[in-house]
Amino acid sequence: MTLADYDKRHAALTEAWRALHRATDTPESSAAARGLYAALRALGAYAQLDAPADAPSRAASETAAYALLDRLCAESILEADDVAALRALAPHMKEVSRFGAYSEALDRAGVNLVSRGLPALWRVVNVLQDDLRRSRPRAFYYRRARRWGAGALAVFVAWIAWQTAVVAAGLLRDDGWRVTYFHSISLKRPLAVRGERELSRDYGLRAPAFPIRRDRWSARWEGRLVVPEPGEYTFVVQGDDGYRFYLNGELLLDRWRDQTWRASMGKVAIRLEAGEIPVMVEHYDHKGEAAIRVRWTGGPIPRDTPLGAPHIRKP
Ligand SMILES: [Ca+2]
Prior knowledge:
Largest sheet: 7 strands, antiparallel
Helix content: 40-55%
Radius of gyration: 33 Å
Structural class: alpha+beta
Bound molecules: calcium ion
Shape: elongated
Distance between the termini: 68 Å
Number of domains: 2
């Protein structure tokens, strides 16, 4: 078998396989009929690949398909039952064209054909693939790798596009934090910028964001705190590992050290006027689990409110 032959046979059988599959996916008999008919035509096209140049046109594809099925059966690729099941198709195709959208007979034939025809076709595809694998192993594996490579590349490109859209949407919003992630534990080598709604994150053992690694990273959250009314406000910070909390440029909490979540709580109460003031949180994770959370309360802000939108705006 030449490679071109293989490609043609494989394409025709794959299309037949897909058409039968589509037929199983729909409860509507008319759609099922179309799928089955397409499968038969594809099988016919497959049979004609071996036919001489003056072979009958595609209009005779059902006949050609039967010839193919007989041959496949003779070569023990198909079992006799499979062929009988596939053969049961054609009369019902004609019924469908006569009666339109619904035919009880078609439903019966469809169930029968699909349940037997699918495994039969699958075996044919496998036999063809085995042929190629044995006769041209390098070509077989090269094609397989190329197909999978193209699929993986498409998924990767779609994922990058999606990530870019998410990041852009987060940064373009007026509310929420602007976050810079660093490829070190010392706020050096910035690697990614994100928009985030709240400062309440439990990363567990995972990385905080693509393309940051799981350990040895740091981050800086920047924003403007919208103070709703004058009064005393309390801020509670926890982190695994270290953190620093700044308000209006002043360092109010400094626990920049390796620590566990339970031992990390810092608390500060401060009197604030209504309006907007700069707020900044720095955090690093050395190894293992990572988490950071800032809550606040005071005035109309209920207890344990995570610090974030709508009371945080972009700097
Ligand atoms: Ca840690």
